[in-house]
Amino acid sequence: MRRVAVAGERPYEVVIGPGAQVELGLVLAGTARAAVVHAPPLAGEAGAAVETLQSAGVAAEAVVVPDGERAKTAEVAAALWEEFGRLGLTRSDAVVGLGGGAVTDLAGFVAATWMRGVRVVQVPTSLLGMVDAAVGGKTGINTGAGKNLVGAFHPPAAVLADTDVLADLPEREFRSGLAEVVKCGFIADGEILRLLEADPTGRRDTVELIERAVQVKAAAVGEDLYDTGRREFLNYGHTLGHAIERVEDFGWRHGEAVAVGLVFAAELAGQAGLLSGDDVARHRRLIEAMGLPTSYRGDWARLQAVMRVDKKARGASLRFVVLDGLGTPTILTDPDQAWLDAAWAAVRA
Ligand SMILES: NC(=O)c1ccc[n+]([C@@H]2O[C@H](COP(=O)([O-])OP(=O)(O)OC[C@H]3O[C@@H](n4cnc5c(N)ncnc54)[C@H](O)[C@@H]3O)[C@@H](O)[C@H]2O)c1
How far, in Å, CA of 227 to CA of 220, rounded? Predict the structure, then answer.
């Protein structure tokens, strides 16, 4: 089993590998009650988690929520609060969030608010959940006004990334998660790039790739839980990526939109004279080999308008994470319009 420590006020461990889920019994030993929150497709895994906990003496119950983004609503959160009341969950009990990023975001948020905060153990089952959503302590739900606008910072007590469950994850979801992995390679860990260049499916070295990506995220969030500094570098590729997701009304998977955003950010850094032509080409070649999109057909004026109101923009200025050489992220504020237009021309389908 691989273990990555996440520092902070409440440090915790991310455990990665086949069978990691059985550590639930260790992490929650001595806990009286636990609610295992999951969506219908993960009912089998949730049943196994309940059994593991019961063998450890924890009175555990599975609680079903809708699948995907439909879980991240105020109505579902309210239904969970009612359910926790019925189960008699107290401050010393725990919530387990078992599923993709939607379920871990919801379970984390409800755990943060129930009795002003009970422990949450995250058991991510999607690749995106393992390398991103379940690590770092950001939790939240969506509202009519937008995605993730209501939430809390609530670091988990532990994250158990059981790589056995990835066998059932649809290929498109796996590839989408790999976009966040390759992002970590570009901003911080060149070995990730070499592993993915050797096997662009990410299947051969999955455990090592997850461990390395989690190390990159852990280094950023350990120093910056509240997202005021280094954590911003994790948004590499996300300024255009978020805009594509919005314009496509979330019909694209997050990682697919980020993949185009990574190529765009590399082209922009090339225009700014920060990244060599070879490194820009390396972005495009690798992302393409991974089966992720590198181009996009869309309305440039509209994308720029959306990027200006991105929640990560400060005021009306446009901010991009770009690379000043591989592994060295920096911020480019209000780049020349000519550079933006040239980078767009390079990703326009
Ligand atoms: N909190 C954060 O820091 C953070 C970071 C990134 C993303 N997110 C959030 O994560 C969410 C996206 O997460 P996601 O990509 O995991 O999507 P998701 O949670 O919607 O899961 C995608 C689909 O895969 C299914 N699935 C998950 N694991 C499976 C498995 N092992 N086998 C079979 N099916 C499986 C799910 O049931 C769902 O149908 C978004 O809501 C996003 O806002 C949060």
Answer: 9
Mean pLDDT per 10-residue segment, the chain (349 residues): 95 98 97 98 98 98 98 98 98 98 98 98 98 97 92 98 97 98 98 98 98 96 78 96 94 97 98 98 98 97 89 72 97 97 95
Q: Give the burial string for 200-231 (b: 16+ CB within 10 Å, else e).
A: bebeebbbebbbbbbbbbbbbbbebbebeeeb
Can you read off the two tokens belonging to residue 154? Answer: 């609530």
Q: Kindly give the distance from the C-alpha atom of residue 285 to the centroid of ligand 1, in angstroms, as a whole number.
A: 26
Pocket of ligand 1 (CB under 6 A): 39, 41, 67-69, 72, 99-103, 105, 125-126, 128-129, 132-133, 136, 138, 148, 165, 168-169, 173, 254
70 token code pair: 């439909």
Place of tokens 């990682």: 255
Chain centroid, CA 335 distance in Å: 27
| pTM for this entry | 0.97
